[in-house]
Design the sequence.
């Protein structure tokens, strides 16, 4: 099934079920928001599934043509956003770029950071930043939404807690990060609000592309209209989603509506390009001694999308332009 | 005014207004939860204030005797929990204890970490931990709840966004933290669910003890029935709450219901004791070369409370026992 949140009706938007081809939608009468649906997943999921079936068959009452631009992030705000860094090629390149050490246990102990979740940008919202000097970057990722995950969940059990998959633009302010990480408490100012794809998709809807652990499709990123990268999200992912969830739930439970991210998708095959500017800059330094791709400037645009093997958009696109933030 | 959340009625509990002496309460008919009140603060705050006045005068309809043990944390889950580390005496001692460097800009750049907020323990809930080997510790802190804070808020503007003050037990797993911080992404497994005082109190209700920037009263921590520390929360706080809020909001807005913590309250005056075990152990190492106070074991109990100058509990107590977590 596919769901989204209209960007009206309150801070959590209005839950809709979206047709497989993303052209039509129908409101859900039983619950108002996606968070509410996840809070009562056992009671609500069959209602959503049934609506989805009817919508795709053209049988849903009160369905309407969908304009994806009217959608917020599927969870416009969330109680938990924990972002992994599961593609080690990205970790290695970006840490080299900022002169940071690689952790000894890089291959056995997942990297994951606690992200801010109190307000996400919508998939078409501008990215407001006060200064170009902060090193504005995008990061194209895959993320999952869980139901209630008990503390101590095993990797084997974690897969069944994944209720939806979606895309993320995890905006990063590269020039604020080194000082922040040097303090030892992780990211804060370096990670402003992220944006998610307009539509969240249940695992079974992804068919064979979803193997219960990762999403085996290419994730495409365009920067100012030019393809910047299209790495395969199923390749070089050292820690799959169940591993990331089990890591996050080692000492505490995760509440329904928790979002767990993959980290920047990155393949060792350099012909696949990059999902963030920092990585490309590091490759330029390695190959040409100096970076030639600048970070984002006001007016620059990033477009993130994933197509199915038939070329159809699965989640809708994230399409965002950086603008100068002016305080009112 | 004072508010709390009955631990029933849903995941966010049921908002109540609590009498000044914490003995009586009344439900709020206009909104169901504290988050909802904060989401609509401009419309709701006067209703709450008026109810609070009536309750204290014995004029509130349907008021009832309050058992504090029926309360969850004021926000049983939140969209944002950002915890500072504003008492540098704590930072210096704890970093010494784990052999970590002190940041160069310790005195000019606030330390703050993004905490997990998807589920808080109630003030009387047991603290479930799977292993005593993880180095179970409490941290007694003060925290504030904000309304909507715009990105780029100044220190001068930030104070007016503080709507409530409360106490926190920021549970820490000391033996998991060094490896976690070495990876560079901050805390995750080392910070399981925190608990907050049963009651949140508006700044004006705190009278002269609240100076718009910090809370000038002693915070008492008892460990297994013995006073462990009672430092003054208004002393040695290098970064006040408006400074922490401005730091947190430098690159993004903070949504209504954001919780900002002070970090472990700690005075340089050693006669005031400690608000966490790690600090006391470091002092023992400095004074006696080896620590003699063990971290918490299953069955150990911590009690955190703040009294007004007349000896009355302001927020109610946090009183928690560590238990062994057994996965179902």
Sequence:
């Amino acid at each position: 099934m596919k769901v989204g949140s209209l960007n009206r009706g309150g801070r959590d938007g209005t839950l809709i079920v979206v047709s497989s081809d993303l052209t039509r939608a129908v409101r859900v009468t039983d619950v108002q928001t996606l968070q509410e649906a996840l809070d009562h997943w056992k009671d609500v999921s069959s209602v959503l599934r049934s609506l989805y079936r009817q919508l795709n068959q053209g049988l849903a009452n009160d369905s309407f043509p969908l304009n994806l631009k009217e959608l917020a992030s599927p969870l416009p705000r969330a109680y938990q956003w924990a972002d992994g860094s599961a593609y080690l090629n990205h970790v290695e390149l970006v840490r080299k770029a900022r002169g940071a050490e690689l952790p000894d246990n890089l291959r056995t102990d997942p990297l994951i950071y606690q992200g801010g979740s109190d307000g996400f940008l919508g998939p078409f919202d501008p990215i407001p930043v006060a200064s170009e000097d902060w090193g504005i970057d995008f990061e194209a990722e895959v993320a999952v939404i869980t139901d209630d995950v008990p503390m101590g969940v095993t990797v084997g059990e974690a897969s069944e807690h994944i209720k939806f998959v979606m895309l993320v633009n995890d905006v990063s302010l590269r020039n604020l990060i080194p000082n922040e990480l040097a303090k030892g408490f992780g990211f804060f100012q370096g990670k402003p609000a992220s944006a998610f794809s307009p539509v969240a998709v249940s695992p079974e809807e992804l068919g064979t592309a979803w193997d219960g652990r990762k999403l085996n499709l290419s994730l495409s990123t365009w920067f100012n209209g030019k393809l910047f990268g299209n790495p395969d999200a199923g390749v070089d992912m050292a820690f799959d989603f169940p591993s990331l969830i089990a890591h996050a739930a080692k000492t505490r439970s995760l509440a329904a509506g928790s979002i767990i991210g993959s980290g920047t998708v990155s393949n060792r095959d350099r012909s696949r390009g990059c999902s963030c500017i920092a990585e490309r800059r590091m490759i330029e330094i390695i190959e040409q001694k100096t970076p030639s791709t600048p970070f984002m400037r006001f007016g620059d645009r990033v477009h993130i999308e994933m197509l199915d093997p038939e070329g159809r958009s699965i989640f809708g696109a994230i399409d965002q332009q950086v603008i100068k933030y002016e305080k009112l």
In short: The longest strand of chain A covers residues 162-169. The radius of gyration of chain A is 19 Å. The mean pLDDT of chain A is 96. Helices of chain A lie at 34-39, 41-56, 88-97, 155-158, 177-182, 241-248, 277-288.
